[in-house]
Amino acid sequence: MWAMAMKEFRQMFRDHRTLALMIVQPVVLLVVFGYAASFDVDHVDAVVLGPRAEQVAAALPEQLEVVRVAPDQGREDGVDALRDSEAVVAVVTAEGGQPQVLVDGANLFAARSVVTALRGRPELPEPEVLFNPELKTSTIMVPGLMGVVLVFVGTIATALGVVRERQSGTLEQLAVMPFRARDVLAGKLLPYLLVAAVDLVVIVIVGMLVFDVPFAGSPLVFALGALLFLFVTVGVGVLISTVSETQGQAIQLALLIMLPQILLSGLIFPLDAMPAGVAWIGYLLPLTYFIELARGVMVKGTPLDALLLPLGMLAVLGTVVFGLSIARFRRDLAPAGRRHRRRPATDADQDQAAPIRTGAK
Amino acid sequence: MSQDRAVWGCRGLGVRYGGAVALEDVTLEVPAGSVAAVVGGDGAGKTTLLRALAGAVRPAAGVVLRPDERRVGYVSAGPGVWADLTVDENLSFAGRAYGLPADALERRVTALLERTGLAAARDRLAGRLSGGMRQKLALAMAVLHEPDLLILDEPTTGVDPVSRAELWRLLASAAAGGAAVVVGTTYLDEAERAATVLVLDRGRALLAGTPDEVLAATPGVVVEGPAKPEGVASWPRGARWRAWSPDGPAPPGTSPVAPDLEDAVIVAQLRQALRRAA
Predict the structure, then answer these.
(1) Which of A70, B5, B35, B55 is 20 to 30 A from A249 in CA distance terms?
(2) Min CA distance, A348 vs chain B (Å)?
(3) pTM for the complete prediction?
């Protein structure tokens, strides 16, 4: 028994990456989870509109943080403000009678806290919950879970697929075949992208049929967002594969990257409820923007012009991650630096120390 | 064949991994239609040389002469086949990678499956083939496009003697078809079948030439006896011992024998060690 335990200890200490993960991951999770795990939204953004907006805004409960007062606007502008995620609450005042209180039901936890807070205040009416009137959890979880599924397929499946070539020794074979690095990468990734796209369509259909999740917005905007998001997740997968020697290492790294995304993206815990020290990490994660986009398009019908920030962020993150991963992958695949040239088959290669020359023999 | 009289290989090749010298000043010239064997012990630099010839390693010094990458066939030291594809699918992938038209691919695949004896296993997953069959598949994939330069890294390691003979028959026929063939091997009996032999030791060329030239260049006398002789460098050969006497008479109880390639390589290594010690 001791011999076995000693052998295991030796192997464990020799695998520095696994050892670091075993020690660092629980600490990271504890800290992140400890700070992020909160459903309590203290402050909710509100816009106050209509002729008595100034007066009503001054009398709103402290929990509502007024971000805009517009006496010349009405209910339609209030709905737009919620649809475009400018605010969670829109208070629409009229010359006489009680104001209307509109709440964005797609922002579930904030909406719930507002509904609870306003209940029992005689000066304000019962809030009208838009987009998710029954405040159903599934309505906002399903679009978010789509992002998680895409992360799984995009990151883990891609990383495993590429590392499998390395681990089985066939990456070397590919390196000497007449492929350009980008052809290898594109050919390698295309099936994963297609499977992820099929996955996405299936989840949308199941979400709509089984969980009654609405699809209020433009499928094209959704498809654009999903494509950009896949671009990032697949790029992360390739990046992981370039620093992993084995499939086990790739899975460990992928999980290390995925767990914070699930916890800090607003999928479960609202970003508004997190302290700024943790929430900023969430704003660097691609899943955060995909969730914002998916919930916006599906639940609220948010138009393209109100989603330029998440789309732009996904494009930036995708470009950075994919650029890095391609650079690393190219280095792995084309050490002789001859992937960029295309010549007739009768030509000969002369690899020289420096510079590399090419010419007929 | 587009270049019947081409000579491929390398001149003055140097390769470094970080600060470590993997190859230094290695020259190998392989005319089209011939087989060259690269031999040496573990860590001698065989794989690095073959990878550099194939274009998988960037040289730090010297020149690599090889045809366009579409005219090179390579069997790496690893499995070299996709275990979760069938024999047919592996061949089809290789054919398409090298740009073979569909009809030519079909013709070549059928011919190679017959020649390698893999026809009955064409629908079997490569991962479920025996070691010998897998190596034959890797070789078939490498010669599918009838390359001008065929590079094989220890294709017969771990393969049974019958399959070894078949593999050599296949690569000899590739050479007969006009390819320049470079084979890395640790089996010196195999190297004797090659037209030229390059012996590597610690990344440097120890011996080079035809097998006869290498044997003829062996200095001193190789002797054989029933017991380990005293005072001279010796090595076991079957149940007997062989020894190298650089310039003196045969040790008592031994008699001179005609050295074979294995003896020549061992003697060269001993001589190198003596030089280094001096």
Answers:
(1) B55
(2) 4
(3) 0.78
